[in-house]
C-alpha cells in the first residue's frame, strides 16, 4: 500500500510539474509575439535638421539587423582598443605590465647591491683589523691570512661562470701578451 501511495505521489508531482511547464510555455508565447513583431518589422531611422527640417540621412532596420549592427560596432571597438594597447606605449599604464627597461634596471640594481655588500664586508673587515692593531692585539699570521683568502677564492670558484667566445679569445690574447712580456699596440693606434 505504501508503494502505491509513493507511486501516486510521484505521479501527482509529475503532473503538477507538467502543468506548470505548459503554463510557462503559454506565457512565453504571449511575450514572444510582440517581441517577434519588433524583430521582424522594418523601422526607419531618420536624422532631420531641426531648423530646415531637411532629412540628413536615413536607413531602415529590423530588430535583427540592429542587434547585428550594434554587435559588429562593439567588436570593432574592442579590436581597436586591443590594438592600441598592444602596439602603443599605452600598455605601460596597465598595472602589472613589466617593461624591458624595468627588467634591465632590476638586474643592474641587483649587481650593484651585490658589489656594495662585498665592499661593505671588506670595509668592515678593514675596520676590525684596524681596531685590533690600535688595541695592540696580535695580528693573524701570513699563513692564516693565506688560508682565509684561499677559502674565499674556493667559494668564488664554485660558481659556474660562462664566458663568450670573444671574451675567451681576449683572455687567450692577454695571457700570451703577459707570457711574451711585449707590448702590442691597439689596432688603429700608431706608435
Can you walk through the features of this model?
The structure is a single chain. This protein is mainly α and 191 residues long. It has four domains: 1-41; 42-97; 109-139; 142-185, no CATH class. It is built from five helices and two strands, in the order H-E-E-H-H-H-H. The protein has helices at 2-40, 63-87, 100-135, 142-157, 165-180; strands spanning 43-48, 55-61. The chain has a two-stranded antiparallel ribbon. The protein is elongated and about 105 Å long. The mean pLDDT is 79.
Helix-strand layout with pairing:
Elements: H1 2-40, E1 43-48, E2 55-61, H2 63-87, H3 100-135, H4 142-157, H5 165-180
Antiparallel strand pairs: 1-2
Features:
single chain; about 70% helix; about 190 residues
Query: How many separate domains?
Result: 4
Q: Report the portion of residues in β strands.
A: 5-15%
Number of helices: 5
The radius of gyration is 43 Å
What spatial order of strands do you see in the largest sheet? 1-2
Instruction: Categorize the overall geometry.
Output: elongated
- Quaternary organization: single chain
- The chain-level mean pLDDT equals 79
Helix content: 55-70%
Please give the alpha-carbon distance between the first and last residues: 121 Å
Structural class label: mainly alpha
Order of helices and strands: HEEHHHH
Reported for the largest beta sheet, the result is: 2 strands, antiparallel
